[in-house]
Design brief:
Layout: H1 2-13, E1 22-24, E2 31-33, H2 34-37, H3 57-71, H4 74-85, H5 94-104, H6 108-118, H7 141-147, H8 152-165, H9 178-185, H10 191-194, H11 199-223, H12 234-257, H13 275-284, H14 289-299, H15 301-318, H16 322-361
Antiparallel strand pairs: 1-2
Helix pairs in contact: 3-4, 3-11, 8-9, 9-11, 11-12
């Protein structure tokens, strides 16, 4: 009995190891201190998490930075951040937060969340309590996207993409990104891409990935603008750089595997870059305007002069004898006969079209 009691006394004297209060962030995947590195949350779905968010403070601030870039408005960005994280949004609190952030050079989201966590007046409020708030007449993201002015070239690129692909590949994308997406994709739509049902979706995916890379670059620029705050943003900067690298490697792999990059191109056919080759591709894709352009080019005096000089140079280089000239005249005669026959057919076709037009328009055919 004494031995047992002694064991109990020894056990009672052993200091209890305090459980390490760390949570793993679901965004960056790092383990961080629960109280220092996570904001409080009133969300009913986080009760078993000691009312702490599952996303660390740094990731929350990084997310806010990306939303500012996306919406180009700090108030709208904060509103959508609150909606995403189930945080109460107080439109009346925002002005004082913005002033404090501007005066101190701090992050608006950081100041707002500190106030929400510390002030008792917000109690157990969540985003659902602020769903009816007014954003002060600010445009939402869809209105912002529709208000972006498109040049005539932008509109043509969009129409060309839809016509060549057969559908709108960016119908569900952010309206603010569509201008970049259409203008980038149209340069990828060559003959080899359009005829390959596997390569086409890969090209579309590459364009979307480039758009994501652009957003990461903007986020990095925003996070590193303040030199004094770069150290505090080190974790977010590292995460963005690593993600950028993964996306870029994925783009290169897709381009190499599908012969999309210049070094691995599979459409290096003869004449692909010549005027005739380009005209042929445009005709096949339904660009009717190319017919007019081709006629203007072929009948231009400058083109005719270049053609004459080229023919003279060829004749001098060939040094043809009498037999060559005889053969050439014979070939020319045969070609002239074919063209004369074609001319007669076209003149008759033109005459019949005029008669048909006059009948339909009510004009007197005998005039």
């Amino acid at each position: 009995m004494d031995l047992v009691a002694g064991r109990k006394n020894v056990a009672s004297n052993v200091p209890q190891v305090k459980e390490k209060q760390v949570y793993k962030c679901v965004c960056c995947g790092q383990e961080k201190h629960k109280e220092r590195e996570y904001y409080k949350s009133n969300s009913i779905i986080l009760r078993s998490n000691d009312q702490r968010m599952v996303v660390c403070k740094q990731c929350v601030l990084d997310l806010y930075g990306s939303l500012v870039i996306k919406y180009e408005n700090t108030k709208i960005a904060l509103y959508f951040l609150c909606r995403l994280l189930d945080i109460y949004f107080d439109v009346n609190l925002y002005p004082s937060v913005e002033i404090q952030a501007n005066n101190s050079g701090s992050n608006i989201a950081a100041i707002y969340l500190q106030k929400i966590n510390s002030l008792n007046q917000y109690g157990s409020k969540t985003f659902i309590d602020s769903t009816s708030i007014d954003l002060g007449g600010e445009k939402n993201i869809f209105e912002i996207g529709q208000s972006i002015e498109l040049s005539e070239e932008d509109k043509r690129n969009k129409e060309d993409v839809i016509r060549m692909v057969g559908y709108d590949p960016f119908e569900n994308e952010n309206p603010m990104d569509k201008k970049y997406l259409y203008n980038t994709l149209v340069d990828f739509l060559d003959e080899s891409t359009l005829e390959d049902s596997f390569k086409l979706p890969i090209v579309i995916e590459i364009v979307k990935s480039f758009n994501q890379l652009d957003k990461f670059n903007q986020a990095l620029t925003l996070m590193t603008n303040d030199i004094n705050n770069v150290q505090n943003q080190a974790g977010g900067v590292k995460s963005l750089i690593e993600t950028k690298d993964k996306i870029y490697r994925a783009i290169l792999a897709m381009a190499k595997d599908n012969g999309i990059s210049v070094n691995h191109a599979t459409n290096k056919s003869k004449g692909a870059g010549t005027l005739s080759g380009i005209i042929k591709q445009l005709q096949e894709r339904g660009f009717n305007e190319v017919e007019v352009n081709l006629f203007d080019i072929e009948t231009a005096k400058g083109i005719q002069q270049v053609s004459d000089l080229s023919s003279q140079a060829i004749i001098k280089q060939l040094m043809m004898d009498e037999n060559d000239y005889t053969w050439m005249i014979s070939e020319q005669r045969e070609m002239i006969q074919k063209q004369e026959k074609r001319l007669i057919e076209l003149e008759e076709e033109n005459r019949l079209l005029k008669i048909h037009f006059r009948k339909n328009s009510g004009e007197d055919i005998n005039e």
